[in-house]
Amino acid sequence: MKQLIALLWLAACCASASAAATEGGNNVSQHQGFVAIRVFANTPDTQPHSWTHLNVISGMDKEFKLELKVSHSRHTSKIFAGYLPEGNYRLQRIVGLQSTPEIGAGFDFAVRPGALTNLGTLIYQPIGEGKATFVIYDKQVDLARTLSKEFPALAKDLSDTAVIGWRKVATPGVGASGQAIPMSLQYGITGALIGGMVKKMAETEKRIAWEGAKDPALRVMLSKTSTYSLNAAQELPDGELLAGSNLGQLLLRSRSGEWRNIDLDDPREITALYARSRMHITVGGEEGMLKQSTDGGLTWVDLDIPIENGLIAHVAEVNGELFVMSIAQGKISLHSRMNTPGSRWGELANLQGMGILPHVNMPSRAAIHNGKYLLILPGKEIHSLDLATRTWTVSRVPQEIQEIGSNGESVYSTGFFQKPHLSHDEGASWSKLDYACGGFVSIVHDFAMLNKNEAWSLCHVGGAFVTSSRIRHSKDGGRTWTDLLAETPLKSTRMVVKKSVLLYIDRDVRIFSSADGGRTWMRDIRKLPDVAPASGDDTLNRQPK
Cβ of 402: how many Cβ atoms within 10 Å? Predict the structure, then answer.
């Protein structure tokens, strides 16, 4: 077996100056192994974005750190990795600036010299009433490959080390089968009391669903049922709606308001999608996910990716040509190819830009508008590719412009917490839309335009006593505004505006919709996704009647 000498060069970026990095002395490669684990936080709260490292405890009750591996290729996933001396360990807690969730008992593993301990994937899952749990996602993922692509110095040695995983964690252990841990509610002292009352009904629903959930497949299914992101929503010709979500879920909404999970059996977040039809769907996501289905999501094939291990932030198809925008290593790249097997990618742009900020939903960085591909460098420039002549033009944009959308007639900016902007000349000049939310402490959280006249804004109002959002509507292109929904039950994280439906999702992942422009609202139904049982028993696949 090759020695892990090359790995030691990365000790500073993979593990802190803790005992793990110092105990081995000059012969450290003979006594250490490399440990990696991936964690998905299935919550719209911001606390997980402040996580910095993961603490583990040795059999001698000594504490070690696995540091967070920062990468532009990830949006919701977090990889903790580092070197540990040979021995037996258990996960203890994840440490962050805003929260420090205890992991609980049962997550035990071993480290062997010169070997990679691949702990796979955990899901951090709120379960209601201020508690959370950690769920084991049992499908193996090649974390060595992911780390090797992001940190080339690891590639040579990780490619040929022995790989080991959990030790006695699959069956016993309170933590592995459902430990409830405290979770911050992200409210002030007074706000927590009010917020607790407002959340009581939804939180009780969560608690009942998770109460007694010990079966590993059931726990994963419950997590998949409560995904929170609605990315790249696309309305199909028959009025159905597709949206990408976290934990590898493609959400399909019927016109009657029933949501069904199309499960890709891959926990990476779907951050981009394009549906040529209900049957032909292409999705992109974090860590280089690019998949395609030609049977409506029953089966998926992995497409070759233009940028290794990048975050796919936008997918579109024009006249049979597939466009993929990726973010990797601080650069924004655009590639295209014909959407047929065997076609090769061609690079159209490679721009020095910025990564994706930790928003609940994937920010919109590109749009197809009047025969042009518009690509935004947040707060800097808009790059416009004429799809007919293949020529680029570049225009400066105001600093407030972070995202971009198109209603077919004009281009608008949808930057979070910023006043919306509107452009009638494909981004060459912009006008600011005032009063979209009104009030000194009210901010625009989401914004959408259906055409040049009709616009909607999702507003958050600051204050410890405020636990809801409101939706406002304009009929004159943003010049005047009225309240469409004065108060949502809880603060909302996303608004989707399409021809046949207006909807929003709140912090407890409940989706509400209106088919009459916002005059009346109903709560949509989210059906349980199918689960592949470990045996021939299909009990978990049966839907409630």
Answer: 22
Contact 454, 473 (CB under 8 A): yes
In one letter, which amino acid is 236?
L
The DSSP bridge pattern shows strands 116-128 and 32-41 to be parallel
User: How many Cβ atoms sit within 10 Å of the Cβ of residue 78?
Assistant: 21
| Amino acid identity for residue 298 in this structure | L
Strand 241-244 relative to strand 181-182: parallel, antiparallel, unpaired? unpaired
> Do the Cβ atoms of 473 and 460 come closer than 8 Å?
no
Which residues in the chain land under pLDDT 70? Answer: 1-30, 150-207, 353-360, 415-418, 439-441, 462-466, 528-545
- Burial (0-12, 13-18, 19+ Cβ within 10 Å), 294: middle
**Tokens found for residue 66:** 């696995």
DSSP helix/strand/coil, 369: strand
Helix (H) or strand (E) run with residue 385 in it: strand 381-386
Of 289, 282, 296, 244, give the one whose Cα is nearest residue 266. Answer: 289
CA-CA distance, 451 to 463, in Å (whole number)? 33
Tell me which DSSP letter residue 536 carries. Answer: S
Strands 469-474 and 482-485: antiparallel
CA distance 283 to 249: 11
Taking the chain, what is the end-to-end CA distance rounded to the nearest angstrom? 56
What pLDDT was estimated at residue 537? 36
Beta bridge partners of 301: 292
Q: Using DSSP bridges, classify how beta strands 116-128 and 163-164 pair: parallel, antiparallel or unpaired.
A: parallel
364 token code pair: 């919109």
Joined together, the tokens standing for residue 102 give 């205890």
**Total residues found in the chain within this entry:** 545
Parallel/antiparallel/unpaired status of strands 77-85 and 108-111: unpaired
The string of DSSP letters for 482-515 reads EEEES--SS-EEEEEE-SS-EEEEETT--EEEES
**Following CA atoms 107, 262, 283, 236 in sequence, which dihedral angle do they give, to the nearest 10 degrees?**
-150
Please check whether residue 247 is in contact with residue 40, taking contact to mean a CB–CB distance below 8 angstroms. Answer: yes
As a whole number of angstroms, the distance between CA 502 and CA 499 comes to: 8
Identify the three-state secondary structure at position 198.
Answer: helix
Alpha helices in 45-188 (DSSP H): 143-150, 155-158, 174-178
> So what's the pLDDT on residue 30?
64
pTM of the full structure: 0.84
Q: Tokens 């709560």 map to which residue?
A: 523
CA 163 to chain centre: 28
State pLDDT tens for residues 252-266. Answer: 999 999 999 999 999
Mapping DSSP to helix (H, G, I), strand (E, B) and coil, where does residue 92 land?
Answer: strand
The first and second tokens of residue 31, run together, are: 């006594």
